Amino acid sequence: MTESATTQFDAPVPELLWTACERVWEVPMIVTTGWWNAAVNAAWPPRCHHTISHDCHEQLAVPEPIEDDPEPALFA
Asked: Where are the domains of the chain?
């Protein structure tokens, strides 16, 4: 029977090697992502937000309430 690892130095070598490979693989991905973001931001800089307020356009139109007429409608 094998005993469980009590410290990181007692862990089996394949598990340590796999963990190290995963950590090393993160470096090129981080560098590539940073390079890509810099290239895209240089080619297409972000647009500034416009300063015009569109509060009147963002309001929903509330219809006038329909009045109940005691008289019947002409075209029912």
From this structure: 9-45
Per-residue model confidence as pLDDT tens digits over 11-34? 567 888 888 888 898 999 999 999
Task: Give the CA count within 13 Å in the CB-facing half-sphere of 2.
Answer: 6
- Of 54, 13, 44, 11, the closest CA to residue 3 belongs to 11
Q: Are 35 and 42 in contact (CB under 8 A)?
A: no
- Say how far apart CA 28 and CA 33 lie, in whole Å: 8
Sign of CA dihedral 9, 13, 16, 21: positive
What is the distance in angstroms between the CA of the first residue and the CA of the last residue of the chain? 90
